[in-house]
Amino acid sequence: MKRVALVGLAVVGAVGLAALCVVVWWHRSIDQFAVTPFGSAEEKVVEIAAGARLREVSRLLSEAGVVSDGLRFEWLAKELKRDRQLKAGEYAFAGPLVPEKVLEAIALNRVKLHHCTVPEGLRLDEVAAVLEGCHWGPAAEYLRLGRDEVLARQWGIKGTSLEGYLFPDTYSFPRGPKPEAVLHKMVEAFFAALARAQAQGRPDVHLDAHETATLASIIEKETAVPDERPRVSCVFHNRLKKNMRLETDPTVVYAKILRTGRFDGDIRREDLEYRHPYNTYTVKGLPPGPIANAGAASLEAALAPIDCDDLFFVACGGGAHRFCPDYDCHKKFVDQCQLHRP
Predict the structure, then answer these.
(1) Which DSSP category does 316 fall into?
(2) According to CATH, what is the number of the domain 37-111?
(3) Torsion sign over Cα 166, 319, 196, 286
């Protein structure tokens, strides 16, 4: 009986030792797994649903080729106490990555960002179309929010819409952002750019935020030549000081779009003569609000015009303009540049 008991004890001991060896080996393999990079260089996108359990997350990552072993990934998450920290969302991984970094990205909700570039000089409706093209929501919803006067007031805007306050830039959001969040970020970017422009502006230029956005939008639409913007701004400042009408064609176009819903590319005499708050051929001073969304350079030009005596300018090919201090000079360049007279 003693011999049987000794054999039994030996067997139990051997099994226990074997089990201990397995446990030690397993934990060492987890440690090795945690610090071993894995994965190919191409981006792999994994969508983690809300409420997904650790096992499901491990399976998704393993099947996508982000981690080499789903089971070891589960154990590692538990060891690092990350198993209850995993966040839902769309994640992008480009390897090789160590599993600890994969866990960290999901626990800290470092989701994949999608980018959308809004060019300078677009109207609200055009911005809405760009954002829809980036799959960030329907243009109709952006238009509804963009024309919400209550929302504009809440965000510190003096006008009745977000026109002119949607700063042109490249924006980044997780997939499927809320349109209101996108617009709010654009408005915040506008006020940040405005503050920078105000810090560099001339002390003798006194325009509030709404007037600056309005004048900047006209400058933006009048010229795409960077060096011309401060001089175009000077012309408009000079005309405002002399109580002259601005007589700028982009406002005529904007007025026509507001009253007819479209612009066919031609400005006719009836358009120039149609009395509308945005038509600066018939109304003195700045229009009631911006006619487009200006970039940083136009905001800066609106607040920092150069010193000049010019009151007129005319497009003269290649996007450039000719500037004049009086009408006779202006008429000469109109004949040369627009009517092609010698």
Answers:
(1) -
(2) 3.30.1490.480
(3) negative
